[in-house]
Amino acid sequence: MGILDLVKSRNKELEFMFDFDLIQDTSKKIHMKQLAIQTCINMIGRTISQSEFYVKKDKRIVKDEMYYRLNVRPNPNMSASQFWQTVVHKLIYDNECLIIQSDTEDLLIADSFTRVEYALVNDSFKDVTVKDFTFSRTFQMNDVIYLEYSNKKLSTLFDGLYSDYGELFGRIIEFQNRKNQIRGLVDVEAITDKSEKGQEKLQNYINKIYNAFTHKSVAIVPQQKGFKLEELKSTSQLQSVDEVAKVIDGFLNQVAKALGIPVTLLHGDMADVEKPTRNYMTFCIDPFLKKIRDELNAKMIDKKEYLAGKKMETKRVSYSNMFDVATAVDKLRASGAFNGNELREALGEERVDDPMMDKYFITKNYQESSEALKGGENKDEA
């Protein structure tokens, strides 16, 4: 028997008061965790879903069945953008993602699977389940696209991080609610019916009164003999909710740093957006695309073809357009450092068959340094 049970057994009046639902526990604010994680993962997923995946052979893009699967319709139920967003979500949160190819050449994302690891031969995957269908056959490593994010599940890191921030967040919310809480006293002069039915009847009457005060702009409560309700006025002012926002931003910033996302982009800061965007693309998006590209090269192109120049490439979304870099492109072309087709590839465009685009040009104002030290032309004296 606990100490509370001992007290209640000795004092029936105290037991009567404890039975009323006048105090509520503060629930866990799990939405803060989901908001931060989904914000970061969705941002990465949206960026990668705008990328183009293609096979390049002899400096030409090969547009075949696989090109269509990777960029338009991987399977009958998903578009390419939805497909890659799902891949990114599973890769980050579950630390791994398995993509298999069905007999109809559809690309399917496995919801669950069992990996059997070996030291000297290909690993195998069994019990592969996609939605409500489980494949009876076993897939070999060289027949699937298997992606791993890191050596440790980020979900474990997020859970541990949230255990600290979540407790602080719940305390602040509870404190803010308590500062603006409507408090009251119920004075019952005589209580004769202490049965469960009588307690329930009185509790329902109290709840009805406070619900009227809470949800109605005008609430009239009839007075009863022996029953007095008194509201306690709060003398403290409502504190600012900035503390709540700071805790949410703090947790969001930690999640963003773990994924390599500049926090200024998440908060929508408009000052000097170019540098954070460049860092985001370089240190967050490019490693994801490199991981996907390496796996596609290993599984879709054999060694002989790869060494001959055939390989998988990715074209990610650019944070600047060709008009922003027009001056730089002109200088690169005029200096003879690159030809037209090389610059088109750098801008994410396909090569063209115009022979002039494969030539190098140097404008007349470019000359050797030794020529620059010479004076003007000598004129014969009369």
Features:
four-stranded antiparallel β-sheet; elongated; 382 residues; alpha+beta; 14% strand
Principal-axes shape call: elongated
Main sheet: strands, sense, barrel: 4 strands, antiparallel
Output mean pLDDT.
Answer: 77
CA-based gyration radius: 34 Å
Counting helices, strands and paired strands, the structural category is: alpha+beta
Give an overview of the whole structure.
- With 382 residues, this protein is α+β, with helices and mostly antiparallel strands.
- The chain contains 14 helices and twelve strands.
- Helices cover 46% and strands 14% of the residues.
- Strand 3 and strand 4 (107-109) form a beta hairpin.
- Helix 1 (3-10) crosses helix 2 (12-18) and helix 6 (154-179) runs antiparallel to helix 8 (242-259).
- The termini are far apart.
Topology:
Layout: H1 3-10, H2 12-18, H3 30-48, E1 52-57, E2 60-62, H4 65-71, H5 80-93, E3 96-101, E4 107-109, E5 112-116, E6 124-130, E7 133-134, E8 139-140, E9 145-148, H6 154-179, E10 183-188, H7 196-215, E11 227-232, H8 242-259, H9 263-266, H10 274-300, H11 303-307, E12 311-315, H12 326-334, H13 340-346, H14 369-372
Antiparallel strand pairs: 1-2, 1-12, 3-4, 3-9, 5-6, 6-7, 6-8, 10-11
Helix pairs in contact: 1-2, 3-5, 3-6, 3-8, 6-8
Short description:
With 382 residues, the protein is of the alpha+beta class.
